[in-house]
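Forwarding the complex inputs:
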Amino acid sequence: MAKILITSGPTRQYLDPVRYLTNASSGRMGAALAQAALDLGHQVVVVSGPVGVTYPAAAEVIDVLTTQEMLEVAHREFQQCDGAIGAAAPCDYQPQQVETEKISKTGKPLQLNLVETPDVVATLGERKRSDQWVVGFALETQDRHFRAIVKLEKKHCDLMVSNGPEAIDSAENQVDLIDAEGQLLEQISGSKLDVARGILKVIDARLIR
Amino acid sequence: MAKILITSGPTRQYLDPVRYLTNASSGRMGAALAQAALDLGHQVVVVSGPVGVTYPAAAEVIDVLTTQEMLEVAHREFQQCDGAIGAAAPCDYQPQQVETEKISKTGKPLQLNLVETPDVVATLGERKRSDQWVVGFALETQDRHFRAIVKLEKKHCDLMVSNGPEAIDSAENQVDLIDAEGQLLEQISGSKLDVARGILKVIDARLIR
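Prediction (whole assembly, two chains):
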């Protein structure tokens, strides 16, 4: 049996003490993956941004807030894991400058300069040992297959799960599984738990055994 | 007994189909106010952004997503109410342009032009009938009392609740109640339900009876 790291939920990048930029992500897919992995007898560590969902009691859950925190905790925990599934939707832009006091409204437009945050899955993919594996998620609104393959290569993933915006905040999901060579392996749809079981089955067969 | 409109929780302003700007707000203060008002025998309508909290079953709850939606629903419901409490933290900036497809990362900074959203409480305050009242919330990180008074006047509120960033996502709160003349009426601290009961007591004594 394997020890699996699952990143889940959104992260937040604050502009000031009250306003922040984030991604729509409920953590439901991460919770479903944790349940599916536990059901197969694996050990699970979830690194999660702020969510309303409850993770399975048998999973170890570590809460984080920002993308940088998610990266640091995931990278640290990954050392003791056999593989990682990046189901989180980390906020990928952050304000160049974070204000310590609440920005006051002036009636005028506000120009916000954003820079990219570090990529959590790409970092795990780059740094993985030869005995470790990384499964990424790609959520795209257009050119899904092409963009998922580009991300797969760029992030050094062993498997990529491609889904669309319908997945967000939904109880259902519909995904394509793409292997390290960019080949479409399988299409899975159903409840997020059904989809999670399908993904874990492929991980079990191709990456763990 | 009165019919009270309570706005609660955050709203979201999307940049594209997955990323959005929002305010840190759990909806707990709104839920506590709804409970306190119901306990005094009032009727309650909650207009709420996306939250994890559960509102009292006896309250009518209307879900909204954006600030514009909150404004429209709150304004419509307010017609049938005696007063409104603006406990929501509506997102007060929105992107000048909303992309229909997910913005792709390029490795370069992203400049975001934000404009102010309409002010929900100020709109209710401006349009209230002479027999209606509006209670606002001001969350400030500095010059709390001064800024709360400025907001009180600008938003035509009958009462202003001033609190600090410690209130966010917390089970506790500490507030100053300021009357329409800018005078500090009371300081209340404790659990959010204790604070809500204190606020409703003042509303009952000064605005309803």
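The CA atoms of residues 122 and 155 of chain B lie 4 Å apart.
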